[in-house]
Specification:
- The chain is an alpha+beta fold and 184 residues long.
- The protein folds into two domains: 14-66; 74-179, no CATH class.
- It contains four helices and six strands.
- The strands form two sheets. A three-stranded antiparallel sheet has the order 1-2-3, covered by helices on one side. It has a three-stranded antiparallel sheet with strand order 4-5-6, covered by helices on one side.
- Helix 1 (15-37) runs antiparallel to helix 2.
- The chain is elongated, with a radius of gyration of 23 Å.
- The model is unreliable at 173-184 (pLDDT under 50).
- The chain crosses the membrane at residues 18-37, 43-62.
- This is PH domain-containing protein.
- Keywords: Membrane, Transmembrane, Transmembrane helix.
- It comes from Rhizobium tropici.
Length: 184
């Protein structure tokens, strides 16, 4: 795990994981097609399951060609975090009230929940404001879920935790120093 907190980390969708899913679906379809050849109850079951499996294969192929494997899905850097599945804008570290992982240890997390300051509404992108404040006066938490990425989610969670710990205290110190009165 790289601990350089000055670099920007870009996480993309993994092409190989989609191919593995497609291969598994195709093997299941071949097995159900083989069941169609036989007589008896397996044939009836195959007649029901094969159309559903063909639908799932078509959907997986559609998703494979629809996905952009070049553009980063999650970007983590000194300026903040961005998940294009949520919105196109960055959430700066100084606008976060906290980051909680689905488990207490970021290395075993399945999701990261980011709590955003209520005061940050005016400085976030319109996409993020629409997503976070939808029909609410208070910001809703932002959930970053694991997916079929080229990086394991535990590494993503560790990076989020590392950057948050490194950049949030700086933002807190800057806020505290700007609010202190200057002696005359």
């Amino acid at each position: 795990m790289n601990t350089d907190i000055t670099a920007v980390r870009e996480i993309r969708y993994s092409k190989s994981s989609f191919i593995v899913v497609l291969v598994i679906y195709c093997f299941l379809a071949a097995g159900l097609a083989a069941m169609l050849i036989k007589e008896g109850p397996p044939r009836f079951l195959a007649l029901i399951l094969l159309p559903m499996l063909i639908f799932f294969i078509a959907f997986a192929v559609y998703e494979y060609f629809r996905r952009d494997f070049v553009t980063p899905v999650i970007t983590i850097g000194p300026q903040g975090i961005q998940d294009i599945r949520i919105a196109s804008g960055f959430i700066p570290w100084e606008h976060m009230d906290g980051v909680i992982f689905a488990t207490m240890d970021p290395r075993t997390a399945k999701a990261a929940t980011i709590f955003v300051n209520a005061e940050s509404k005016s400085s976030l992108s319109d996409d993020l404001v629409a997503k976070i404040w939808r029909r609410s006066k208070r910001p809703r938490p932002v959930l970053i879920r694991r997916g079929q990425f080229d990086t394991q989610f535990k590494n993503i969670a560790v990076a989020v935790d590392l950057y948050y710990r490194a950049y949030k205290p700086k933002a807190r110190n800057a806020e505290n120093s700007s609010q202190q009165p200057i002696p005359a």
